[in-house]
């Protein structure tokens, strides 16, 4: 049986405006991966959308149902996600100690980081498995011969530790044609957003992303699955990786968002007390919400009526 792994990254260690870089691997047996792929395609078809899932581009909550439905489905499947966080200041310190340029260090890490992430996934699978690895298409990976190097390193690990698996294929795909790559991109984006506490931003984009993440986490047992199926590691410039509980970052986000939402619903109640017949469009304007946050208000109104925040999913 084939085990499939998909790899993506967010941010680069030589970007001066970035505190962290993120590298994620998403794995499952090929049968489950194909089922997930087909189900997500069906979700897209049912909602009449073909646009790519890409967390940084999620800036309008007209796509809320699409993202929420996909995330809710995926997190309840038998999948494992490993995400490695690199503190860019630590990376700069290492490059200075080695007396090499930061982009040269990035080239070195491009081989080591994926291999560590993939090994973390393969330790949990049965022996005698064939492994297929797919990475987001990137000219830099090709120039570094990342595909052949990762294949060689992974098979060396398997042989040395008698793991019994064989990496037969490492190749790239365009993310626009790969739903699994879009999925790992979205989960990396969520983790990065929460870790960097971007939810404190007053921008509409940050509020729209915060609403998506919060709605996703409060749906049934998603918070438990999110914490159990996503493993975070941090590289601090030494050989060992530090494992970090997801709860360290999620708790503050949930508390912040709960408080924020209660304040917003209180504002809605005050407006409706003075204008009990106010219509949605007028209410949105009174609240200072652009049309890109229309579904946020609808969620608040559902809660104020005693319904679930995500009850619109059933419509």
Task: Present the secondary structure layout.
Blueprint: E1 2-10, E2 20-29, H1 30-47, H2 64-75, E3 80-87, H3 88-98, H4 102-122, E4 130-136, H5 139-143, H6 146-161, E5 166-173, H7 179-195, H8 204-218, H9 222-229, E6 230-235, E7 241-244, H10 247-274, H11 280-287, H12 294-304
Parallel strand pairs: 1-4, 3-6, 4-5
Antiparallel strand pairs: 1-2, 2-3, 6-7
Structure description:
This protein is of the alpha/beta class and 315 residues long. The chain has two domains: 2-246, 2-Layer Sandwich (Nucleotidyltransferase, domain 5), CATH 3.30.420; 255-314. The protein contains twelve helices and seven strands. It has helices at 30-47, 64-75, 88-98, 102-122, 139-143, 146-161, 179-195, 204-218, 222-229, 247-274, 280-287, 294-304; strands at 2-10, 20-29, 80-87, 130-136, 166-173, 230-235, 241-244. The chain has a seven-stranded mixed beta sheet with strand order 5-4-1-2-3-6-7, with helices on both faces. Helix 1 runs antiparallel to helix 2 (64-75), helix 2 runs parallel beside helix 8 (204-218) and helix 4 (102-122) packs across helix 6. The two termini are 39 Å apart. This is DUF3800 domain-containing protein. InterPro entries: DUF3800.
């Amino acid at each position: 049986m084939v085990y499939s792994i998909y790899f993506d990254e967010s941010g680069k260690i030589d970007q001066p405006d970035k505190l962290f870089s993120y590298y994620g691997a998403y794995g499952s047996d090929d049968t489950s991966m194909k089922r997930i792929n087909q189900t997500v395609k069906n979700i897209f078809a049912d909602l009449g959308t073909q646009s790519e899932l890409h967390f940084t581009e999620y800036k309008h909550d007209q796509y809320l149902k699409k993202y929420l439905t996909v995330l809710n489905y995926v997190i309840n499947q038998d999948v494992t996600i490993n995400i490695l966080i690199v503190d860019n200041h630590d990376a700069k310190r290492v490059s200075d100690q080695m007396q090499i340029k930061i982009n040269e260090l990035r080239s070195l890490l491009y081989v080591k980081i994926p291999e560590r992430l993939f090994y973390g996934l393969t330790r949990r699978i049965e022996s005698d498995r064939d492994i297929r690895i797919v990475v987001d298409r990137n000219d830099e990976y090709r120039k570094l011969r990342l595909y052949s190097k990762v294949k060689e390193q992974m098979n060396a690990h398997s042989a040395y530790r008698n793991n019994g698996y064989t990496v037969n294929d490492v190749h790239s795909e365009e993310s626009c044609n790969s739903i699994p790559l879009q999925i790992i991109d979205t989960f990396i984006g969520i983790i990065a957003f929460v870790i960097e506490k971007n939810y404190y931003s007053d921008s509409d984009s940050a509020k729209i992303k915060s609403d998506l993440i919060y709605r996703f986490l409060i749906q049934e047992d998603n918070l438990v699955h999110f914490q159990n199926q996503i493993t975070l590691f941090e590289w601090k410039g030494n050989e060992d990786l530090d494992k970090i509980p997801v709860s360290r970052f999620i708790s503050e986000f949930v508390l912040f968002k709960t408080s924020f939402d209660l304040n917003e619903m209180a504002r809605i109640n005050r407006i409706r007390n003075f204008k009990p017949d106010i219509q949605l469009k007028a209410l949105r304007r009174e609240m200072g919400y652009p049309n890109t946050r229309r579904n946020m208000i609808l969620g608040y109104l559902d809660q104020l009526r005693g319904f679930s925040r995500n009850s619109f999913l059933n419509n």
